[in-house]
Amino acid sequence: MREEWEVIIVGGGVAGLSAALTLGRSGRRVLVVDGGAPRNRFAAHMHGMLGNDGLEPAELLRRGREELGAYDVTVRTGRISSAEEAADGLVVAFDDGETASTRALIAASGLSDVLPEIPGMCEQWGTGVLHCPYCHGWEVRGQRLAVLGTSPMSLHQAQLLRQWSDRLIFFTAGCGPIDSDLAARLRSRGVRLVDSPVTELLTDRGRLTGVRLGDGDSIELDAMFTAPILRPNDRYLADLGLQRTENAMGDFIAVDPVGQTSHPRVWAIGNIVNPGANVPVSIGAGSMTGGVVNMALVTEEFDRAVEGADPADLSSGPAEHRETESAEDYWEGQYAESSQRWSGRVNPATAEVAAALPVPVNGSALDLGCGEGGDAVWLAKQGWQVTAVDISATAIARGIENAREAGAADAVTWVSQDLSAWVTEETFDLVTASYFHSSVELPRTEILRRAAARVRRGGHLLIVSHVFETPADIPAWALRHHETDDPEDPQLQDELSVLLTPDAEVAELDLDEADWQVVRKEIRPREATGPDGDETATVKDGIVLLRRA
Fold this sequence. Notes:
The protein has about 550 residues and is of the alpha/beta class. Strands 1, 2, 3, 4, 5, 6 and 19 form a seven-stranded mixed beta sheet that branches. Strands 22-21-20-23-24-26-25 form a seven-stranded mixed beta sheet, sandwiched between helices. A five-stranded parallel beta sheet has the order 8-15-9-10-11. It is elongated and about 105 Å long.
């Protein structure tokens, strides 16, 4: 059977792997087809790459592949021979005759450098013969350098290389006649122009030492730069009839700023369309295009859902959808649809109560419904070893990042699971549940009772809840969230009925009085700011602190 993928990426260099990382983290099923011959394989080190200056190219690719192992990304060695239209996508053919289908194709297969046919050129490529002064100029600065002209672009290269050395020769034979003004410009900064063609590269034990010229002379050199002919590796896309564009560097597939080609399911990134893109630029292009491709698939999925939906379902409001929506889908949607749902700070009531509790040696805490981790990170900073659990994978991902930024990454264990099904054999000195409520069905009391059973002797259970004793306690932003302006709206009151007062909370839990002592049971008012940051109101927190005997 033909393999089916959401995205196929042709090319396992940095551009392709970067796109795969973004798509893998978007939950996409991705295949990377790697021909195993990256353009920079001849270079021993990469330079000009922030945080990785001097790293071996192969090591960067190894790290990238290793990182992809955490996601639904498969890397396959091979080559693509063709791509063609199919129902709802594309079909690609491999050189071995197998085929695979995909909803989107990213071409990141790079280009091939065609070098001048001069003896010794291929053997010195990437060591004694170079192409990019930004990649290699620092390592040969001040030495005896040359530029081997191959096209009018070499005139630019000859001026550029003067920045790295004042001992520079420009071999002009491959450029044709040089304009007298440009020749004078080069000579004005000491660039020596030689019009006799280079016929051979001279070496000593594998190291470039100079060149021999057509007139029989030889010139000593330490390194030479040249601009090869650039041939994009895009023949497998020929059947799609993609629009192309020509520039001073050659003929390439035409793309927009995000890599979109003239085909709605095909993108192209990296050297296959931008021969001047170095490693950092290619990584950035892959990241950006990966996000764009994911959004294109998201849009297509919504379009299909709308086309196939019952009109009656589309006209129902949020409350009607919540009746059938799972708690996991609801809360993941709440977090995924915004860049940050909460402030990222600890809940004030939780901090006030927990700060008064002793932290045992190696004290452990469980944070139920941790959200984006504000409470969990705060507890970790107080000395607790924290297990933080939430139903939303997006919330957990943000919590991990927040803990890292706060220097508390080693003190928090993050769990992305539905608490109604999550169980653990661990025991804890403190269990917290701050604003642990859900607009869709969640067995809250059952979860709290199960968590209470995991509290060690002498440990505490802390529950902090919203309390609305009267309709006047409901702030304006809460009314807007529930799509009403009437605090006495029956549907609103029904949804808020799950919010218990501390007395009702203790009664609902119905824990064994011989086993549990009520330490605090109170309603605490506080000033709060709305989610938009421009409204304040007095809200009430219900606080229940229980101690296990």
